[in-house]
Amino acid sequence: MKEGKLITSSIELAIELTLLYDRIEKKAYLKNQLARAGTSVGANIHEAKYAHSRADFIAKMQIALKECHETEFWLTVLSQALPEYSLDATRLREKAGSIRRMLISTLNTAKSNSEKE
Predict the structure, then answer these.
(1) Dihedral sign computed on CA atoms, order 32, 35, 41, 43
(2) Which of 62, 64, 80, 109 could form a disulfide linkage to 44, CB 3.0–4.6 angstroms apart?
């Protein structure tokens, strides 16, 4: 499983979003939404490690997937609202997209294993 890469990538995303947050001087609402969604991805992945059941694991990973998709949305808004951050937003959106694909793969595997039980 790509668990180590998934956790590492989500931590890196949260750190990079936090650093970007500190550089953005305006659009507080946008910054806050981006920070909340972006840091929630890794928090939910981390929490899923200690899930009580496969269903709990799947639920937490699905929340991480939704938050990851929301992060991509806010990064798109950021790049259009504040074009001076568009290179950062594009790079981070690509990183979030990679995490999203790993989450989808992990969820598909977990759901498939659930059906076999």
Answers:
(1) negative
(2) 64
pLDDT digits (tens, 9 = 90+) for 1-21: 457 899 999 999 999 999 999
Contact 54, 114 (CB under 8 A): yes
Q: Which one-letter DSSP state was computed for residue 49?
A: T
CA torsion sign for 68, 69, 73, 79 is positive
Domain limits, the chain: 3-116
Tell me which DSSP letter residue 84 carries: G
* Yes or no: domain 3-116 corresponds to CATH 3.50.70.10: no
- Local confidence band at 105 (pLDDT 50, 70, 90 cut-offs): very high
Backbone φ and ψ of 92, nearest 5° = -70, -35
